[in-house]
Amino acid sequence: MKAFAPAHITGFFITYDDLDPLRTGSCGAGLSLADGALTGVSLSDQTEVRLNGRPAEASTTEAVIRLLTDRPVRVETRLGIPVGGGLGASAAGAVSTALALNARLGLRKTLNELLYAAHVAEVTNGTGLGDVSGMSSGGVEIRRKPGVPFDVDRIPVPPMFVYYVHFGPVSTKAVLADAREKAMINAAGRRCLKALLARPTFAELMRLSRSFAVETGLISARALDAVEAVESHGGLASMAMLGDTVFATVPGGLAEFGEVRRAAVDMAGPRLLNDGHQPDYFNSS
């Protein structure tokens, strides 16, 4: 049996720090994508994490393993998204690992218990704040409160695709280390969250995400060019937080900036799958 966790894009966010990792996290809004992480677990003589068929140093995944078991296991994860692209790769890997461990070892944990372990692993390793919460139920979400327990609402949307182009990685740790920059980010994020709660639609999320990216200066010049190219084709676009990736409602205008990926918005959230099965749209293009 394997476990799947969707990718997650944050459009805007507000950070919250606390000595307790269960109280640390972020508010904001974003969406889950069917490109994500597919993980299987087997018993082993020593713990090993493999990513896309190769041995990997995955601190967040390794932290999840330590939180849930002291038995040595071999974790095999296939990622359908780039690492460091603002697509929640570390969170998807951690969540899918937690679900797969629970199934393989008979840990008898609830979904929330597994998600909270993944959240703690993300926070303590500095690889994310709100991706686990955001992907916890799939769809297009509004994260109302930080930390555990999750307080997540969803914006109703029909089945839909999102298009994205990835330019390169951005260090989440580096961006959030600057206190002045974090204060500016949080002020912009609070304005965006208030506006989205007043008008909770997908189009408003896209518009506010663009405004947030530009106002905070987090968007790169190349990403802004791509956003404007999409807008010239009648679409909406912004930059995934925190990564140099542009996501859009239409593919028009993106092709001149790189390989365009298409992914369905994942409505189901993290889940177990039978061996040999994966979502039809996994790793789609």
Please name the defining characteristics of this protein:
35% helix; 28% strand; 8-stranded mixed β-sheet; disordered C terminus; alpha+beta; 285 residues; Ribosomal Protein S5, domain 2; 4-stranded antiparallel β-sheet
Tally of helical runs: 8
CATH architecture, by name, is 2-Layer Sandwich
Q: Tell me the fraction of residues in β-strands, as a range.
A: 25-35%
Radius of gyration: 18 Å
Reading the helices and strands in chain order gives EEEEHEHHHEEEHHHHEEEE
What is the number of domains? 1
Please tell me the overall pLDDT: 94
At the first level of CATH, what is the class?
Alpha Beta
CATH topology: Ribosomal Protein S5, domain 2
Helical proportion, percent range: 25-40%
Largest sheet: 8 strands, mixed
Tell me the quaternary state: single chain
Shape: globular
Plain-language structure description:
- This protein is globular.
- The protein contains 8 helices and 12 strands.
- The longest helix is centred in the middle third of the chain and has 20 residues, at 179-198.
- The strands form 2 sheets. Strands 1, 2, 3, 4, 5, 6, 7 and 12 form an 8-stranded mixed β-sheet that branches. Strands 9-10-8-11 form a 4-stranded antiparallel β-sheet.
- The protein is α+β, with helices and mostly antiparallel strands and 285 residues long.
- It has helices spanning 59-68, 89-105, 111-125, 131-135, 172-176, 179-198, 202-216, 221-232; strands at 2-16, 25-43, 48-51, 54-55, 73-79, 140-145, 151-155, 161-168, 237-239, 244-248, 261-264, 271-273.
- It has one domain (1-273): Ribosomal Protein S5, domain 2 (2-Layer Sandwich).
- Helix content is 35%, strand content 28%.
- Mean pLDDT is 94; it is low at 281-285.
